Amino acid sequence: MSHLINWGILGYARIARLQVIPAILASGNGRVHALASRDAGKQAEARAQLPDLVVYTNYGEVLRDPAVQAVYIPLPNSLHRQWAIAALDAGKHVLCEKPLALDAAEARDMVAAARSNERLLMEAFMYRYTDRTQQVRTVLESGVLGEIRHANISFRFLLDRPGTIKMQPGLGGGAMYDVGVYPVNLLGLISGGALPVAVHAEGEFTDGVDVNASALLRYESGMLATIHCGFNAFGQMGAEIVGTQGRLLVPDPFLGEAGELTLITAQGTRSIPVAATDRYTSQVRDFAAAILQGRPPLLSLEESIRNLEVLDMIRASLKAH
Fold this sequence. Notes:
321 residues; Dihydrodipicolinate Reductase, domain 2; 2 domains; 9 helices
């Protein structure tokens, strides 16, 4: 097998154009071979960026291209299950934007397709590749915080793009699907993969989607966690993890810029430096390397299913209130 993976891109979404395509070009082990878009303007823009690109007008043509080995899916959330399974059945490996699916049941269908076709499937949580996340892991695994009793994680921004799919309920819009999944995923790391035993969520809705939502989660260990996400207020991103022996403050937990964590214990306050990380390049490089080396990528499918089980609980509580 060549040392380069040929990627096919389903659609010319904003995240594909600005983040993932440049990441593949920088990865060193992948190339963008094909892209599908029905928009003539987007086709022209893609060709200008990538002169050797094969451009198709529908997604099925990408899946039928024998040169395509891996497919990146940046489609609306409601289309993830359909096109991931179609790609897997066509023999392609699949990197799918988060959330992997609309619920855990859909995700299980996708995982079954990946396993039956012996192809890799991964949810694109790029923040998991950052030095910041690794430093958080190191602190948690060191035990310096003692028993974790509380976590508080926020991710919100002011959405000001008219007509965005993020505000369309039929396409899987809403703040919890778009940014709330990040705090849910980070909670999985903090809790050691445990599911909460109780969830209470409250939200504010506009045009049928949640634009402001908070949830309280209780775990069997006694840990309480609060998460917040939203589209309709000034931006905020941060995490606080509190244990019996210390407290860890994590600014911008989902970004890749350099910075620092703050660890507070009885011994005093200590800054932990964080190196800058190209999240998207690290992600696509690892996924392509996993294909080439015949190994699993960083993020497991079991974790993605567990994340969606938690999201199912939060969304059920939001609907109930």
